[in-house]
Amino acid sequence: MSEYKIVTAPHPALKQKSKAVSAVDDAVRAQMDAMLKTMYDAPGIGLAANQVGMLNRVLVMDLSKRDEGEEPSPICMANPEIIYKSEELSTMEEGCLSVPKQYADIERPKIVRVKYLDYNGKEAELEADNLLSHCVQHEIDHLDGILFIDYLSTLKRKMLLKKLDKLKKQNSL
Ligand code: NI
What's the CA-to-centroid distance between 52 and ligand 1, angstroms? Predict the structure, then answer.
């Protein structure tokens, strides 16, 4: 199965808004499979198309604890749309495969409901809380060209990007 290369900030694909897919066809399914493999190998819990330089609204997630022997439990979404956000907020530390080794506390709605097309192209809904909620909001942000560091102050964001640049130059990512 093929695999993609994950792009890192400040790659321009990470700042672009992805376009809806017209249908979940075999090509989109192959993309979802390859994105899952890429995410598992990274390893990470979520990956959006922008992060592999593709600009269609596709994302994959898997929060199972695979390193502790849990079975994989992949979630594939095309054209995800948040249809409900709770007023209650939740703060969690987030990281991102496109901003490697950088972490920050991010505040988001605690619960969201998301409408999407699943792997088979069927309309589906997911209600997400806690980590899954942060993850799906983080991935949908990617499809809109938004990174978690965009929620930080300019100073903090610049600091993280500078640290990332230094790591890249030292070849220690
Ligand atoms: Ni990310």
Answer: 11
Q: Which domain holds residue 114?
A: 12-169
Tens-place pLDDT, residues 49-105 = 999 999 999 999 999 998 888 999 999 999 999 999 999 999 999 999 999 999 999
Catalytic machinery residues: 139
Count of domains in the chain? 1
Looking at residue 1, its pLDDT comes to 57
Residue 98 alpha carbon to ligand 1 centre in Å: 6
Residue 17 dihedral angles phi and psi, to the nearest 5°: -90, 125
Does residue 158 fall inside a structural domain?
yes
Q: Please state, in angstroms and rounded to a whole number, the distance separating the CA atoms of residues 47 and 98.
A: 9
- Which CATH number belongs to the domain containing residue 164 in this structure? 3.90.45.10
Inter-CA distances, 75 with 39, 44, 105, 117, 126, Å: 12, 13, 24, 11, 10
Count other C-beta atoms under 10 Å from residue 6's C-beta.
20
Helices H / strands E in the chain, number of each: 3, 7
Measured in Å, residue 97 CA sits from the centre of ligand 1 at: 6
Residue at token pair 């560091």: 149
